[in-house]
């Protein structure tokens, strides 16, 4: 999780105008996908 979050963070920070809400929503979506993957084989 740490590496993926860092990559996403650095990717958005590299942009001229990073949007915190976009980062949070993207991270939340990724966590939801991870939970689904854990439950569904």
SS field, number of helical segments: 2
Low-confidence stretches: none
Provide the residue-averaged pLDDT. Answer: 62
- Rg on CA atoms, Å: 12 Å
Fraction of residues in H or I helices:
over 70%
Count up the domains.
1
Distance between the termini: 20 Å
Report the major sheet.
none
Shape: flat
Strand content: under 5%
Task: Sketch the topology as an H/E string, one letter per element.
Answer: HH
Q: Count the beta strands.
A: 0
Structural class: mainly alpha
Descriptive notes:
The mean pLDDT is 62. The protein is built from 2 helices and no strands. The protein has one domain. The chain is 80% helix and 0% strand. The chain is mainly alpha-helical and 41 residues long. This is 13796_t:CDS:1. It comes from Ambispora leptoticha.
Give the SSE layout:
Blueprint (H helix, E strand, L loop, with lengths): L1 H13 L5 H20 L2
In short:
The protein is an all-alpha fold. It is built from two helices and no strands.
List keywords for this structure.
single chain, 41 residues, mainly alpha, 2 helices, 0% strand, 13796_t:CDS:1
